[in-house]
Specification:
CATH class: Alpha Beta
Structural class: alpha/beta
Largest sheet: 9 strands, mixed
CATH superfamily: Dihydrofolate Reductase, subunit A
Bound molecules: 1,4-dihydronicotinamide adenine dinucleotide, ligand LIKH6CAM
Low-confidence stretches: 31-44
Strand content: 15-25%
Number of helices: 7
Shape: globular
Strand order of the largest sheet: 6-5-4-3-7-1-8-11-10
CATH topology: Dihydrofolate Reductase, subunit A
Distance between the termini: 47 Å
Number of strands: 11
CATH architecture: 3-Layer(aba) Sandwich
Length: 274
Amino acid sequence: MPPSPVPLFFAADHQLQLSDYLPLPRTTYLQENTAELPPSHPSTQLPHVTLTYATSLDSQISLQPGLQTVLSGPESKAMTHFLRSQHDAILVGRGTAEADNPGLNSRFSDDGQFAVGLDRQPRPFVLDPRKKLDPSRTPKLLENAAAGIGRAPWWIISDSEDVDQTIWTNVVRAGPYAGSESGIDWETLLNNLAATGVRSIMIEGGATVINDLLKAKNQKWISSVIVTIAPTYLGDGGVIVSPPRSNAAQNEARLTQVRWIPLGQDVVMAGKIH
Ligand SMILES: NC(=O)C1=CN([C@@H]2O[C@H](COP(=O)(O)OP(=O)(O)OC[C@H]3O[C@@H](n4cnc5c(N)ncnc54)[C@H](O)[C@@H]3O)[C@@H](O)[C@H]2O)C=CC1
Ligand SMILES: Nc1nc(O)c(N)c(N[C@@H]2O[C@H](COP(=O)(O)O)[C@@H](O)[C@H]2O)n1
């Protein structure tokens, strides 16, 4: 089969334009053998958090709950894969894991030619505080890890869940969890992630995760926002990104240091939130 053409993202070296929004170059390595990791990380620094997703013009990230919807074109999708290679970890909510059966690995090298090696793959984390997800419903994550083209997934559950260590081997605690209204305590979670060696994490979704992180009280944990905007309206009934307002008089989340990068038919917007 002839090799597929190098996506425009790599050919045009848009990586440079994104560099202000990326974490520091990866220097640490999460090891597959967790026994080799120190019990807690000496640094108290929280990870760099990149919030990144693809949206329609009507602020929707999928056609309906539970349905995976292709929004990014090949160029912006390639950018997402580049971003994945720049982060230690990647996080999605249980809804996304169940709906999409995602791979969450990086499938391009920096020049777009090859898949990156395991040392550049992010660790996938699935946020599932009530431990409702059956790991067998996310076969791609497990297959990628078995094939050596992605890291083994870890699960994020609340403090109150019991864990059967024979099934739930790779677990990070999210602190207490009272329900989706209040969400999780991101500071606790980010501290716990840092303790496993995570220095940078990209958060891809879905809407429940994004809307919680964009709440006024949680925005401070976001280091940068990188959103792909696709030239399409999905219409009523989709999964909407729109955080709840805490103060009607104020814009809840105005981005600064904004940069727009056209990529194929899409535009990518990068910014900071504080
Ligand atoms: N276009 C894009 O870039 C993306 C689209 N999606 C789409 O989003 C949809 C899934 O979105 P949702 O249904 O909202 O599911 P979700 O992926 O946000 O997961 C919801 C579940 O995750 C947990 N959770 C999420 N946020 C939490 C928080 N702050 N605190 C505690 N627990 C939390 C809870 O168990 C909750 O039931 C799918 O259709 C998927 O295809 C997902 C990711 C990216
Ligand atoms: N960047 C982007 N564009 C879209 O159009 C999307 N639907 C998504 N979805 C996210 O990517 C995950 C799928 O990843 P794999 O290709 O299976 O590795 C999906 O779960 C969403 O997080 N992203």
